[in-house]
Amino acid sequence: MSYSIKVLENDKLKIEVLPELGGRINSIIYKKSKKDWVWNNPNLNKARVSKYSEYDSHWQGGWEELFPNDAIENFSWGKGLDHGELWSAEWTIKKMSANSLTLSTKNLESGSSFEKNFILNKNQKI
Q1: CA-based Rg of the chain, rounded to a whole angstrom?
Q2: Whole-angstrom distance, CA of residue 12 vs CA of residue 34
Q3: What is the DSSP code (8-state) at residue 122?
Q4: d(CA 77, CA 94)
Q5: Which of 6, 21, 82, 125 could be a cystine partner for 55, CB 3.0 to 4.6 Å?
Q6: Where are the beta strands (DSSP E) in the chain?
Q7: pLDDT in tens, 2-23
Q8: Are 104 and 115 in contact (CB under 8 A)?
Q9: What global pTM score does this model have?
Q10: Do the beta carbons of residue 29 and residue 35 sit within 8 Å?
Q11: pLDDT, tens digit, 9 for 90 and up, residues 42-85
């Protein structure tokens, strides 16, 4: 396995994030029912994908971002990749605790850099 699984958890949810695989959310499990609310492709193994790959036949599932484009298109800075740049980018862990994770990525084709924060708040009584 050439990727890590980072887990955020509280009393009700367990969330798995894959930093090296697009920084995507791999699962959101509601503990009471054990239901996973994120779809994963049962026909593809989890693995890094070239940024030049065609998206649809390589989509492993998960919840990911789409930036700056969907279909391949030309921009002033160059050609936008299929499904954008973030789904195939490797993200670096900047900070992690039991209920939070901060990831970043840079050196993208568009010259952009990104940071994203996952925060799993403490359960509240309703």
Answers
A1: 16
A2: 10
A3: P
A4: 28
A5: 82
A6: 6-9, 13-18, 24-30, 35-36, 73-75, 78-80, 92-96, 100-105, 114-119
A7: 899 999 999 899 999 999 999 9
A8: yes
A9: 0.91
A10: yes
A11: 999 999 999 999 999 999 999 999 999 999 999 999 999 999 99
Cα-based distances in Å from 30 to 13, 39, 89? 5, 14, 28
- At 106, phi and psi to the nearest 5? -150, -170
* Half-sphere exposure (Cβ direction) of 76: Cα atoms closer than 13 Å: 1
Quote the CA–CA distance of 21 and 18 in Å, as a whole number: 5
Residue with tokens 């699962």: 27
Residue 17 tokens read as 């994030």
Residue in this structure with the two tokens 């980072």, named with its chain if needed: 6
